[in-house]
């Protein structure tokens, strides 16, 4: 684990190259944590990556990154409000291996910004985590999320499950 100065900011369409690079890194690091394959991501064009970068200032969501002083992206986290869900959903969570853990502060800083955004819209935050992603489940539990007992099929393999977790804000 590394501790280094970083800032949290929203993504923009002009960040498309960095959005692409961190997404590919995420999918290589923990493929079961996301509902997109590396192969699918590699097939996207610049317009798609620019669209994803624009999520930093979306009406129904936010996309944030943790950026080191040297410009390197070491974490990302998003949140989306869906019409059919009572609480916004935490999505696309990733922190580079060397920056994981409470001492580094990246996860907590990203989550604090997401929670500030979500708390202006709802009284809680929800997420889905793959049943086999024990590291992520433990990280969410340490930050106040609790399992609801509800599950959904994992979109990339419907025989597997994603667990619903929530946190009151």
Characterization of this structure:
By secondary structure, the protein is of the alpha+beta class. It has helices at residues 16-29, 38-42, 46-53, 106-119, 134-142; strands spanning 6-10, 61-68, 73-80, 89-95, 124-130, 146-154, 157-168. The strands form 2 sheets. It has a 4-stranded antiparallel β-sheet with strand order 1-2-3-4, with helices on both faces. It has a 3-stranded antiparallel β-sheet with strand order 5-7-6. Strand 3 (73-80) and strand 4 form a beta hairpin. It is globular, with a radius of gyration of 15 Å.
Tell me the series of helices and strands, N- to C-terminal: EHHHEEEHEHEE
Please report which band the strand proportion falls in: under 5%, 5-15%, 15-25%, 25-35%, 35-45% or over 45%: 25-35%
- Main sheet: strands, sense, barrel: 4 strands, antiparallel
Low-pLDDT segments, ≥5 res: none
Q: What is Rg?
A: 15 Å
Give the helix proportion (percent range).
25-40%
For the structure shown, list the relevant keywords.
3-stranded antiparallel beta sheet; 169 residues; single chain; 4-stranded antiparallel beta sheet; globular
Brief summary of the model shown:
With 169 residues, the protein is of the alpha+beta class. It is 30% helix and 33% strand. The protein has helices spanning 16-29, 38-42, 46-53, 106-119, 134-142; strands spanning 6-10, 61-68, 73-80, 89-95, 124-130, 146-154, 157-168.
Secondary structure elements and their pairing?
Blueprint: E1 6-10, H1 16-29, H2 38-42, H3 46-53, E2 61-68, E3 73-80, E4 89-95, H4 106-119, E5 124-130, H5 134-142, E6 146-154, E7 157-168
Antiparallel strand pairs: 1-2, 2-3, 3-4, 5-7, 6-7
Helix pairs in contact: 1-3
